[in-house]
Design a protein that fits this description.
Elements: E1 2-7, H1 8-14, H2 16-24, H3 27-45, E2 48-53, E3 64-68, E4 71-75, H4 82-95, E5 99-103, H5 107-115, E6 119-121, H6 123-143
Parallel strand pairs: 1-2, 1-5, 2-4, 5-6
Antiparallel strand pairs: 3-4
Length: about 140
Amino acid sequence: MERLIVDGYNVVHAWTSLKHLASSASLEAARDKLIERLSVLGLVSGDEVTIVFDAHHSASLSNSEDTVEGVRVIFTRKGHSADHVIERIAYDATKSGDVITVATSDRFQRDLVRGMGGAVISALELERRVIDAEQEMTRRVKRYQ
């Protein structure tokens, strides 16, 4: 199985459109838009998509997890970073033989994932892939109209 693991806030702050949405509307709106766009990527690519967000300001003592539009969404528990959760997911995935790609522009995170045998793409490369997937989805829809 191929899996894409996304460092949520790293991507929100790297994509101009999401950064603008976070500052003009809300961080929640930017998260929702990212999830929506990643769901298209997952549909087109067939990859299992997981996005991890930090929840440092949360009082929750456990990670919260949900599936939204086919995307697995994880908020870390209080005191834990998205990096730790991503590392654990990547380690477990590579141990079970899954092919993983982590999307982050965090240099330390990138080196760690590569050391585990995973692939890494930058937040901007992820955006290019999402745009390509959205264009492919538009072509598919037009074909069936």
